[in-house]
């Protein structure tokens, strides 16, 4: 009860500050829209897809997962600014729940990601993408879990390294191989055997496969429940670890 | 209100390949009675802030015991948090929030309901003369205004004791005097105030009792008056050229009425004597006889600065 109340309190505060400066939601949408407009048209011939709509069914889910990963991983920067301003320390001398300090922030990130995902989906509809609403909601659940995990991990790492200079290269180093090994831009079906073998160890590759299956209306595909399970477990672990960083001493 | 026994904390720091253990706080025993302004003095790196952060539950002590406002620090830090307020040195407000938003949030983080949080925020804004800026963003505030918001944040839940870490550092003289009044007002409201400072005049003017910390240990504790009285006698400060200082030291060091003697960096000597009025003519005669050029001579009662110098072997200004 206290956890829910405190989480709501922190969430409201963070959302309020975000809405005071909503330009960031649109900055976040700008890049994916550029991909949608300037990169996706190459895909129909490149993938040998029969129609443009088919190409979007492959590309849009990957793009959304990409957005969730990157959107989350770079949230730590905002937290470092809060650390520096003393806001985190001020929260830590109150009895507020430590888990709520994390969850309130991460849920704000999830909401901001979902807003972006809806905008991109709506734009893709203009390009003849068609998805069943039930499948789409399940895909959104996958995206929400990814964003929850990556933002929690980013906050945890930010509390550990405490400096933007250390966080930026760290996050880039993690994000790049994760991105390339998840078949986000092009499906790994085109990859040589060894690359597919390595990608199997990347949880995001399962998430991308699952999300693509959902966009394809293939809800019974094993990759759907496998992807959701893997990401849900990792999100829980990420949240647990990051909340512990909030509870530990922060200088 | 605060009682600590043998409170300890050490940090491991790594320099290259070597790990070094720094004993930041080596066994502190403190007794702070309710309703006082208690000043905690010490040079930078003495362990003041570490002690304060332990008392405020921000870092866990390695050992020792502490009871704060009746709650056990080690066994029940959650209860300590409910009973204390803490205002950090480096600020704690967010640029993009307004003073009112910060106060409401802080009250609600202490579990206070929404309506009551708004009432308390309004009352605090009034009391700290912030009402006219209440709905402006914190980044537009002056240093003094921002500091007042931060103090208000620290006491929004009406704690029994509030910790203020260097509350006047970086403020101009007028804001500083204003802040002293605010702090006295907290005491008048029945709160115990624990402040750290490295301004001795501040400790002297504001604090009912002070403790001096150096190298992680308490080296003195008492009322400012008692501590000054401990250094019996007077202080005579003799202004000389740097070149003449060495010779004057030789002349005066052996004199039986000089209890202790210190060199001043800018040239000259500081002499601790039993009675200034009889010592000054004798000092003057010696200096005159040696043909040294005297620039100034001052007599004063021991200040906290002298207490500090006696207890730690250095002046607070140079540390």
TrEMBL record, chain A:
Domain ABC transmembrane type-2 per the UniProt entry, residue ranges: 23-249
Superkingdom of this entry's organism? Bacteria
Q: Write out the transmembrane intervals.
A: 21-43, 63-85, 106-127, 139-158, 178-195, 224-243
Coiled coil recorded as keyword: no
Q: Which InterPro entries match?
A: ABC2_TM (IPR013525), ABC2_TM_bact-type (IPR047817), ABC_2_transport (IPR000412), Nod_factor_ABC_transporter (IPR051784)
User: Which UniProt keyword terms apply here?
Assistant: Antibiotic resistance, Cell membrane, Membrane, Transmembrane, Transmembrane helix, Transport
Q: Where in the cell is it found?
A: Cell membrane; Membrane
The membrane topology noted for this protein in its Swiss-Prot or TrEMBL record is: Multi-pass membrane protein
Pfam assignment, any one: ABC2_membrane
Belongs to which family?
A: Belongs to the ABC-2 integral membrane protein family.
Protein name from the UniProt record: Transport permease protein
């Amino acid at each position: 009860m206290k956890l829910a109340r405190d989480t709501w309190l922190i969430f409201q505060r963070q959302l309020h500050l975000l809405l005071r400066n909503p330009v960031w939601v649109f900055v976040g949408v700008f890049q994916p829209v550029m991909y949608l407009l300037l990169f996706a048209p190459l895909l129909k011939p490149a993938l040998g897809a029969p129609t443009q709509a088919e190409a979007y069914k492959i590309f849009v889910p990957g793009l959304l997962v990409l957005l969730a990963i990157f959107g989350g991983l770079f949230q730590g920067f905002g937290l470092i600014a809060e650390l520096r301003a003393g806001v985190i320390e001020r929260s830590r001398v109150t009895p507020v729940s430590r888990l709520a300090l994390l969850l309130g922030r991460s849920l704000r990130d999830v909401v901001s990601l979902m807003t972006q995902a809806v905008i991109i989906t709506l734009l893709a509809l203009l390009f003849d993408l068609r998805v069943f609403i039930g499948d789409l909601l399940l895909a959104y659940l996958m995206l929400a879990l990814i964003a929850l995990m990556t933002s929690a991990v980013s906050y945890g790492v930010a509390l550990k390294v405490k400096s933007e200079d250390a966080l930026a290269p760290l996050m880039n180093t993690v994000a790049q191989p994760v991105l390339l090994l998840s078949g986000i831009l092009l499906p790994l079906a085109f990859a040589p055997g060894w690359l597919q073998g390595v990608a199997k160890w990347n949880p995001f590759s399962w998430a991308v496969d699952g999300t693509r299956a959902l966009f394809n209306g293939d809800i019974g595909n094993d990759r759907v429940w496998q992807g959701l399970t893997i990401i849900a477990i990792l999100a829980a672990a990420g949240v647990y670890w990051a909340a512990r960083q909030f509870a530990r001493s922060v200088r | 209100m605060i009682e600590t026994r043998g409170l300890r904390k050490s940090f491991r720091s790594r320099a290259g390949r070597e790990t070094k253990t720094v004993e930041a706080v080596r066994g502190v025993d403190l007794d702070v009675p309710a309703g006082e302004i208690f000043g905690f003095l010490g040079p930078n790196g003495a362990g003041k802030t570490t002690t304060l952060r332990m008392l405020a539950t921000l870092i866990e002590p390695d050992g020792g015991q502490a009871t704060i406002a009746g709650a056990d620090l080690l066994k029940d830090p959650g209860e300590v948090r409910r009973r204390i307020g803490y205002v950090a040195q480096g600020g704690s407000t967010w640029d993009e929030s307004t003073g009112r938003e910060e106060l409401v949030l802080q009250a609600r983080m202490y579990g206070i309901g929404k309506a009551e949080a708004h009432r308390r925020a309004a009352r605090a804004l009034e009391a700290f003369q912030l009402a006219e800026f209440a709905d402006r963003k914190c980044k537009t505030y002056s240093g003094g205004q921002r500091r007042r918001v931060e103090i208000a944040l620290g006491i929004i839940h009406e704690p029994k004791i509030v910790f203020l870490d260097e509350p006047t550092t970086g403020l101009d003289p007028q804001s500083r005097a204003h802040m002293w009044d605010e702090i006295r007002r907290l005491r008048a409201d029945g709160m115990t105030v624990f402040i750290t400072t490295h301004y001795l005049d501040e400790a002297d003017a504001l604090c009912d009792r002070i403790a001096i910390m150096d190298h992680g240990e308490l080296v003195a504790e008492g009322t400012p008056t008692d501590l000054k009285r401990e250094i019996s006698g007077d202080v005579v400060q003799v202004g000389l050229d740097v070149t003449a200082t060495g010779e004057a030291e030789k002349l005066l060091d052996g004199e039986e009425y000089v209890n202790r003697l210190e060199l001043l960096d800018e040239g000259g000597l500081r002499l601790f004597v039993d009675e200034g009025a009889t010592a000054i003519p004798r000092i003057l005669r010696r200096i005159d006889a040696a043909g040294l050029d005297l620039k100034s001579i001052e007599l004063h009662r021991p200040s906290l600065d002298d207490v500090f110098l006696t207890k730690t072997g250095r002046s607070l200004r140079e540390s």
